[in-house]
Every structure is written in C-alpha cells, then in structure tokens.
C-alpha cells in the first residue's frame, strides 16, 4: 500500500499545474447547470487518479477527454435529479460508494482512500458525488428497463451443458474493451482505423478513455478475467484466432461496436455447477442488454439538451 501511494504521488506531481485555475470561468451551460474551467481540471485529475496511463497523452487531448466526461456526467445528473435525491449523502448510499471505490482502487481503509485522491487535489466529497451519479444512473436504467430484458434461460442452460461436455479444462481470458458508437456522418471503417491508430500510438487504455462509451472507459477499458462460457460465440471465435496482446476486429453489439484486447489467457479446471453457471450467463446477458439501454437513453438525452459553449 505504501509503495502504491508513493507511486501515485509521483504521478500526481506531473499534474501540479492542474491544481487550481487562476481565474474561474464558465465554459459550458447545460440547462441550469454550468461547467467551469475548474470543473474540467477536477475531472481531469479524477480520470488520472483512476487511470495513470492518461499521463502519457498530450494536455490538449487530456482536456478534450475531461470535457467530454464532465458533460456526460452533467447530462446524467440533470436526468437523475428528476427521480432521486442524488445530492443527499445518506449512510446507506455512502457505504455503497465506499465499497465501489475500494473495488476500483483496491484500497481498503478510508484514510488511504482520502490520501490517494488528495494527491490529485480532489476531496473525497467530490469523488463520492461522481460515483453517486454512476450508481443512481445504473439504478435508473435498471428500474426503467429491467422488465424489457428478454432472455431464453432454456437456451443458456443448454449452452452451459454443451460447453462443459467432456471438458476437463476451460479457457479463461483477461480482457479489455472499447465500445464505440458512430456519430452522425461518421464512417465505420474510418473510425475503426482511427481507433487502431490511437491504440498503436498511445496504448489501448488511453484509446478506451478517448473513444469508449462503456463505463469501463475510466479504467482503461478493463473487464478482467472472464471464462469462455460467459462470452458469445462471435467473440470467442475471434479470441481463439489472436495471440495474447492482440485485438479483435470490431464486433457489432446492438447499435454499437466492440473491440476487445486479449491481455492474458489461462486454463481453469472445469467443475460444472449447472445452475450457478447458468445464472452467471443470465446476469451477463442482462448486463449487456441494460448497457445497451443505457447508451440509447444517454444518446437521446444528449440530443435533447442544448449545450451552450461560452
């Protein structure tokens, strides 16, 4: 833990120029919400606190990422205020927020969590608010669309049986993702090439921050270890064709496109628990469909909100 904090303190020093704006200026206005230059600085420091790979990017690129990220947060916040008391910091919500921070950073105690974010000129209060927005957004999506989820449990159980049949070991992958959309008038092949070129020049993690619309973008696109059974056939077919460190081609996922990086691969013992594995598949498919609803709702809200650049 001590080494981790020392490392992040070194990284933070390179961002000392982002500590405070010499003069607070309003940059954008979204309905009754404003975004200042200090908000952009804080967002930049927050993103770096979660993914230090961003430090390799040029400052103007970092600034663009931070602006896009804070605008996204404001759009979600404006919608969430209609349904939740999102500014209230209740103990129940606070406990969930701290567990989420712990999961993301691997830092257990409150004191070291505060130390970590203070290295990036952020208060724990600021960080808690940002995570509350994410948590309440996920709740909104679940409440609104859960009854629209369509899953054939019988087919998933059959898939589990077929995948485990006569197998002693099964493949497990450590994956990272970039989930991207096409904006109006964008060409798929050109955008795909732009993303690949960005990956080549700045690394996959930074490209995820720049292009991905998935919540994993803030963490360099990291998904983590996933066994083969939990992935669709169109994904596993591509993963079986690439080496560790390689990328899949873009894979259509709903209205979006997915690029996956295979960071590592291993064999795990196949000890089948039919009900458990089926439930995991059901949850994965539920998350996938809810994520698509989330993207669609956000895009709809973004189109209906006029963003004033001042």
Overview of the molecule:
By secondary structure, this protein is α+β, with helices and mostly antiparallel strands. The chain has 2 domains: 2-146, no CATH class; 154-275, Chitinase A, domain 3. It is built from 11 helices and 7 strands. It has helices spanning 2-13, 37-50, 59-80, 91-105, 110-118, 124-145, 153-164, 188-202, 204-211, 233-239, 274-304, and strands at residues 26-30, 33-36, 169-180, 222-227, 251-253, 256-269, 307-309. Helix 2 crosses helix 3 and helix 4 (91-105) crosses helix 6. It is globular. It starts with a helix and ends with a strand. Mean pLDDT is 86; it is low at 1-17.
Beta-strand share of residues:
15-25%
Number of domains: 2
Going across the biggest sheet, name each strand in turn: 4-3-6-5
Structural class: alpha+beta
- Residue stretches low in confidence (pLDDT < 50, at least 5 long) are 1-17
Average predicted confidence as pLDDT: 86
The helicity comes to 40-55%
**CA distance, first residue to last residue:** 43 Å
Please tally the helical runs, counting DSSP H or I stretches of 4 or more residues.
Answer: 11
Number of strands: 7
Radius of gyration: 21 Å
Q: Major sheet, described briefly?
A: 4 strands, antiparallel
Choose one word for the global shape.
globular
Write the H/E string, N to C: HEEHHHHHHEHHEHEEHE
